[in-house]
Amino acid sequence: MSVETLFKNAASKTILAPMAGYTDFAFRNICSEFGAGLTVTEMISSKALVMGNELSRKMLYRLKGEKSAFCQIFGHEPEVMSDSVKIDEVAAFDGVDINMGCPVRKIVKSGDGSALLENPSLASKCITAVKLALKDKPLSVKFRLGISDDSVAVDFAKMCRDSGADFITVHFRTRNQMYSGIADYTLLEDIANCGLPVFANGDIVARQQYEDMLNRGAFGVSIGRGAVGKPYVFSQIAGLPYVMDLLCVINKHSDALLAVFEDRVVCNELKKHVSAYLKGMRNAKSVIVAVNASKTTESLINLVSDFVADNPDYGIVGSETAI
Fold it and tell me: Which residues are designated catalytic?
């Protein structure tokens, strides 16, 4: 399947970027409903999948009827990575994304994530092995500009093309930047000219930015932190009308997770999302503190319910007309 076919019926060429601890199946579904063209799981260890790790398998859970979604894997052993995408739960996804950009120290020390930016030969073998295993399903690769500068970015994009990737997502920051500073899109045109569809990632939160990226050669954009607390950003970028009922979204998220995980786990997962929803709202600081101290999902939702009852203007967010 080509990337053009993958996004043929999407409201916009947008991806919900994979985020550890955030892009669980329930949040992916919420973002899809607000117009995300493709969603991607949290990054999952290919080795853990092959070894049958139960938590890793649970991260592959999908809601019935979930729209286009990729599974993101990480690793550095071509054979293991190839075997991991043959597992039934992974094969059920519409495609696979390989993480070659994670800057977290423990990932890099293991030779995974952005460590592969320093070993393009091994990265190439990993991409080729996974693509051969996927056959006709699309494969994407996500990477950063480089370690401390952008000197490897264009060549790495060409390597991805030559190794069998169908498209790439580039986080336009270096590994050393982590998530600080400003994304630098200087090389976007050069990377786009390498012959692979490119999704631009980093600091994109508005329709005008999306249009600017497309005008500069990007096929689409990938949005991560900009969607946390604002899943409707995909509707805004697509120029679609939208309405977000805060309590409805939180209840939908919690109900979906409770069908799979223990209440304690669900409560902890929801805390960061609810905090993001409430961030910046007047009178919300004390509620956010109480939310983060909650011991049960019910108590957490009751706190939000009480806040909305006292501040009804914050219960509904949206625009009833297209942009």
Answer: 102
